[in-house]
Amino acid sequence: MDGSCELHFDCGTLVAPTLPDDARLLALFQKDGRTGVYRAPAWHYRDVVLRLRELGVGYDDRAKRFEPLEVALTVPIQPFPHQSAALEAWTKAGGRGLVELPTGAGKTLLAVLAIAHVKRPTLVVVPTLDLMTQWQGVLARHFSVPVGMLGGGVNDRQSLTVTTYDSAAMQTEFHGNRFGLLVCDECHHLPAPSYRFIAEGSLAPYRLGLTATLERTDGGERVCEELLGPRVHRTDIRELQGEYLAPYEVKQVAVPLTADEKARYDEARALYLNFVRKLGVRLSAPDGWARFLAQSQRSDEGRAAYRAYREQRRIALTSSGKQEVLWRILLAHREDRVLVFTDDNETVYTLARRLLLPALTHHTPVPERKALLAAFSSGELPVLLTSRVLNEGVDVPEARVGVVLSGSGSVREHVQRLGRILRKRPGKRALLYEVCSAQTAESGISERRRQHDAYQEEP
């Protein structure tokens, strides 16, 4: 439509050569001193268009490169009540917002329903290549249009496209005007400085953020709310267990260090903490850990303190008692599919050699990773050892038992690991073991990561 205002897309920004004299509209833009045009982050596109319509100002929209998409479900979906409630809340919010659902509660199918509802070209952004392939398969099963992928050596953009955060961050300036719906899976990744531009540089008027645990320790969830919309729906794990998720139990196992391990642990920890106190660094402060790392590399004393930190941590996370407990758990659950989680790859490979079990890390080539997951699914491999690569998204519905041998203090990581074993199966009752070294700093780490409703005892 010809009019008095033109809108253009330029490398992730919205450009208008002229604007009507309206305070609300002008507040969204800045005058570009180099070119004399008005420029705004592309994500303001929706607000700009709506305001122009309110003012009755004609405009020539040369920014967007998408139109309504004729897309319908090839097979009808009967959503669960929590999916229907989430879709209704998102729709009432104008097709913008965040949905928090437990792992296994059907976030992917919720996105399928959202795509079918808004009927716009859609970009789905996911954290890993495994998830990209998984999402592409789900979308291809439910829609008759081609589903493209961007990432992992694949460069196939379609009206429905799945990409990774890394790939999207590099390509948004080129295709940020080609999608009407932006879906960010595991959207708690979005606030990272290198990823924000995915949402900031996109015109998409419709936005959906999906996550099992929105909160971040740095308050970054506010970035998600600003760029994707407010949290419109949340369903807790305990609301779904038994009917839509497998019922579960969490067992803590405290393992004492041997006398030799305890002596070496205390010596290393004392050396590390003495250096921290000498620096006057508070590790609980937001910049405490970064300050310790910086200072530890500036002297022989600092480097010794950092080695001591690594040693006391290694002893606590990989004690001989933990390995014995793991073996007993595996024997007790020899008929079950078991996932074993650790905090680092070194521990995974050590256990793999000692127990002659398969290991899956981010170093595992994609073909081998697919083969391992297929063998686990079929029961050919009843146990998988992993570090963090299975924390997010990958479907392993046959897993009934999880063993956390070590991990960070992150609540999100712990909830994600629990979620890996909650996929519903007839007669299934999931069991998560958390194995901690007693009388070490790991006890405090365990307490921090258990601050979630999923780990609280029911009244």
Automatic annotation (TrEMBL):
Range of residues in the leader sequence: none
Molecular function via GO: 3'-5' DNA helicase activity; ATP binding; DNA binding; hydrolase activity
Domain annotation Helicase C-terminal: ranges: 321-459
Residue span, Helicase ATP-binding domain: 88-232
Coiled-coil positions: none
UniProt keyword annotations, A-Z: ATP-binding, Helicase, Hydrolase, Isomerase, Nucleotide-binding
Listed InterPro entries: ATP-dep_DNA_Helicase, ERCC3_RAD25_C, Helicase/UvrB_N, Helicase_ATP-bd, Helicase_C-like, P-loop_NTPase, XPB_DRD
Reactions listed under catalytic activity: Couples ATP hydrolysis with the unwinding of duplex DNA by translocating in the 3'-5' direction; ATP + H2O = ADP + phosphate + H(+)
EC number: 5.6.2.4
Family annotation (Pfam families): ERCC3_RAD25_C, ResIII, XPB_DRD
Class of enzymatic activity (EC top level): isomerase
Family indicated by similarity: Belongs to the helicase family. RAD25/XPB subfamily.
Name of the protein in its database record: DNA 3'-5' helicase
Organism the protein comes from: Myxococcus llanfairpwllgwyngyllgogerychwyrndrobwllllantysiliogogogochensis
